[in-house]
């Protein structure tokens, strides 16, 4: 190494015409009113007989062995289970997309025009005239999101895995359809390859795409589906003896034990986990989960605005804790690095392109950079690559004169990590 070193997707969407209706049908409304609307729960017990009986009675969505199992039930069933002294039961956090109505309208185009090289790519490559990117060969980027349009001209050559984890019991192979757009956009920033020559480029176009659908078509989903996908990526890294970078452009104000344990599991298997910091800024101490976890790299969002010699952190981008700022150590709830996240132009689910803002957009820039670096140093560990990201960010901030040069700050972490 040359250097030392209710959950929701965090995009701020302004493409309102493409979002599915969030209304409920009369039947759904009646189910909720009668207490029959189903939701996901985690059931566990030290008594294996009680646990097996519960599995037989309610069915299993995912079996987490030592952590119990998840299943769907209504409020009446949940209340009844809570009275069972042999069982512990808790609701699984639900994921939902966050939208921003106070942001400028997003640019939406059916075909790429003059923006074949988005500003974020130029910024992360530190080259305003760059028209094509490279790197990431042999590294896999697992995009855990709403799915990916694997037939998009700018992505289809990179697809290695396509799996749906929202169905439960087992994933569905060769199925990761994105009907929302978020996941396709995220994948493009990480590794789009320009398609036929008129498309967009991501940070690491030579990397392989693992498209893991963990959120539904409306952008919502459950923590257990995400946890299973994280563990699966870790197992695949071991089974295939390959390097994996997980990107999670999603977050929650509350911690899920299922996701926390899954992140630790994958990290210990050598996977590098990159996650969005969240869109609850500029309030200090507002980093969302899983980005807030110690074994995940939380990425803040930068605007295309130069301030004090470096790119400005967006106001919406979540901030870390003041008490841990400047200590050169990334602790729980800290921003680690920052990347382009405002007005980001990338691939879209219908084969076109769209511009979106959010830390969701910053995270894949960092994931692509991690893949690019890892391909250059294939014997490095996930810890090494994480340290290299921090080092690049820190050195860049020193050169730009940003205050983060004295350590990590609450807004940008160590700063903006660049490819060169």
From TrEMBL:
Keywords: Hydrolase, Protease, Serine protease, Signal
Limits of the Peptidase S8/S53 domain: 136-393
Record-annotated active site: 145, 182, 360
Domain of life: Bacteria
A Pfam family of this chain: Peptidase_S8
Extent of the signal sequence: 1-26
Similarity remark: Belongs to the peptidase S8 family.
Stored PANTHER family: CEREVISIN-RELATED, PEPTIDASE S8
Protein name, per record: Peptidase S8
Organism: Planococcus salinarum
